[in-house]
Amino acid sequence: MPRSHSALAHAAYHDLLRSLRDEGLRDLRGTPTRVLRGGRGYWYDSFRVGTEVRKRYLGEDSPDMAARMEALRQDRAPEGQRRRDRARLVRLLRAEGFLGLDPTSGSLMAALAGAGVFRLGGTVVGTHAFRLYEGELSLRLSLEQTAQTDDLDIASFERLSLALEDATAPPVTQVLAEFDFAPAPSLEPGRAWRWRQTTGTALVEFLTPAFGAEGLRDLPALGVQAQALRHLNYLIADPIPAAIPYRSGVLVQIPRPERFAIHKLIVAERRRAQDRMKSAKDRAQAAVLIEVLARDRPEDLAEAYEDALDRGPRWRMRLEASLARMPDTAARLAAL
């Protein structure tokens, strides 16, 4: 059974996460405004710039969101003190063995978060997301399980990006340029979904679910193009916030762990013929998460697994093919 972090580390992580989430609702420039679109509510900070009314997206409406906004109206703690408190929590987490980021990756994540990438629907996927489940699941990960990758994958729904009527500031392309990233050539001239660092080996990729043919799509809120991929809509539905223990903390979004685990089983089979090493890594990450979730969150895991099975014969075929190579994991899922 994978090892867990201490109760102290678990509490410190959630204190850091709560503080980072609340920070995004402070210092409103105008009036909080609830907007209905497609039967769903979204909160904005509405303010005037000259004669123009501008709106800054705050988040989707929920009882928790309303309660947090009300509580923060009464909280007058100075910004500097809040930042120092978060830095103290980060130091505690690092001392407890939480994984950190190297300065280049950490500063890039902080810059993307500051521009609003994750506030506007961007969701970290891939190995960077897997590393962040140590906080959500209080899971102590080994170096072998979390071998650092230079690739950063960010996914978002095209429809959400269109609906929000807000955009990153500064633009994502400007942020990437400041970190020496340049667009990598694609099959569509003048359009790029991959950005390669000219002074290193890092790569940033933007992805979006495919509801039809795979190809490039625009993400207006992020100001970039993204590669549309099948199965991704399952992965990034209903993402959760996560805190990166870097400096005074960085707030991002990641997929729900149960969806990440099941999605990894599908992806492992899909790319087994092209990249066996990545396929094996996908299965290993899925096995770790499923072992923990079967113990701590069996209902969530069962629901995610049943959802995937109900999506058609191709989904079931890929799941069965991966699980045929993973008898222990298959037994855990069968026992749910």
UniProtKB/TrEMBL annotation:
Q: Which top-rank group of organisms is this from?
A: Bacteria
Tell me which Pfam families the record gives: DUF6788 (PF20586), NTP_transf_8 (PF12281)
Q: Which InterPro entries match?
A: DUF6788, NTP_transf_8, NTP_transf_8_dom
Q: Which residues form the signal peptide?
A: none
**Which positions fall inside the Nucleotidyltransferase-like domain?**
105-309
Q: Give residue ranges for domain DUF6788.
A: 27-65
Query: What is this protein identified as?
Result: Nucleotidyltransferase
Q: Can you name the source organism?
A: Paracoccus gahaiensis
